[in-house]
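User: Show me an example of a complex going from sequences to structure tokens.

Assistant: Sure. Here are the input components:
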Amino acid sequence: MSDWIEKVHALADGELAGKEKEEAQALVAESPEAQNELQWARLFKEQLREKVPPVGDEECWSACKSRLDALAKTRTVETFVGRYAWAFCLIFLVGIFSAATMGRMDRTRPLAGSHVASLFNGLTPFNFSGDGEAIAAVKQRVGVQPVPTGQEVRVHKLELGFVDGRPAARMVIDDGHGEMNLIVVRGVASVEGFNQRYESYSVGNFNDARAVCWPDSGCLFMLLGNREFPDLASAANQLRQGN
Amino acid sequence: MLFKRGDPQKERFERMAEQVFPSVFGTALRLTRDREEASDLAQEALVRAFEAFDRFDGRNFKAWMLRILTNLYINKYRKRQREGTNSSLDEEQAMEPVSPAEQAPDRQVFDEMLGSEVEEALSKVPEVFRIAVVLSDLEGLSYDEIAAATEVPVGTVRSRIARGRAILRRELEMFALEQGYLKK
């Protein structure tokens, strides 16, 4: 399309300025063809607007408003969440921490079988020079003396550590009738699955050994050995004397 | 209070959008030539405008809205084009010789015509020219605003408008001759 036609249309649209406008005006003044084009352009604009008015659509506008409402609601929630995200995180963390702490403090929760197993392979050996030193180390770890003073038991081995986040000790002791394991765990009162009773003890089996358990001074005591339950209960009674 | 009863920004946007909505929907209709598609396009444009409302410079809301609408339409159109539909935005394909007006304009061409007939003639104008004519002649956007909306230089806008009008004029004249509004 000729450049002059475009210029004439731009003139009709009021889109020319300066020298270009002057040139276009001069062209229109000189050329009947350019005059026709200018008149056409102006008539077109005028008639198009008259014949083709804006189109309203109530249904579409209602749909638009609904979408805007939904968007505004989402944005409000997002703004709120964004503004207080740190608080939500804090509450969440406090919740987790509280639940964990309460879980640890819950003495009614029994010691799980897997935790009993970790008493045999998850504690750290403790070297000691005499029975007294071993017993003192256990008392320091779990807060209670495991064997009364004056008892005739020998401590052959001692391991200390934590089980399920609780202080724990395992001693291999000898009461003159053979070796046994004496386990002390703070903050727990029973062992999962040890539902049978013998005298005042809850009893059960762990691997090939039998065990008797009793709670004392905020700790769980557990005596394990290759003996019958009456013998284990008798040994436990001996140990508890004077405690 | 955690949640505000009314969102002032949304209310302001809604007031402004309601005023220009006939232009928005009308333009969508003239671009898509389909009422359902036009409704989708207008809604999508409004949602995008609302999301970007904080970036509106406060000058010409209608031009800003139509710019979003046109951009959206062109992008969707290009996507459709890539997907293999027949319609094309290729300006070269739409080029055809258009001569200047040979005589003084005959108002009769328009006088006898109904709006729907003019709309039909307008719908026959190739895409790129129709967009320019609609934005310029129906919506009153400046060449700069059209250039921004269609993402082409102002010189291209000028050319498209002149060519679009020439094509439309030819369509109208042919229609007027067919209908007997004009005599050869």
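The lines above are the inputs; the final block is the predicted structure for all two components together. Chain A is about 50% helix and 20% strand.
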